[in-house]
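=== Per-residue structure ===
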Amino acid sequence: MSNKTQVFTLKVNTAEHEVEVEPDTPLLYILRNDLELNGPKFGCGLGECGACTVLVDGVAARSCVIPVNSVAGHDITTLEGLGSPELPGLVQQAFIDEQGAQCGYCLNGIIMTMQALLNRNPHPTEEQIRQELKYNLCRCGTHMEIMASALLATERNR
């Protein structure tokens, strides 16, 4: 172990993982490179596009700008932790049913942001959904399908 690296225990998708990294290593790098979780995507690297969104204690967070030392001891959930291909989570299933993706690159962030919204407000209005998702960038322009998916998830959450 070098002088700069430390061992951190991360609870990701209910499983504990020990990683030896520098304290300021972005969480995204650990999730993708060390834990091989490919739900969160590297987009802008500045926390602005939303592709890297995960849940930290149920709240949406941009993992590309979160240092690992700030999330040790917290519950981290990635897209993989919401469901499986055989049994998708509620929001995931709504996006499948409404075909709410084109290229799918932004989808991780949108689904995770929508899940965080439902965690704190089980019955959001359409305007609340729009406000919540407005900082998630979709370059393909599937905004109509995204909204239909988000509204379906909200309806099924009732």
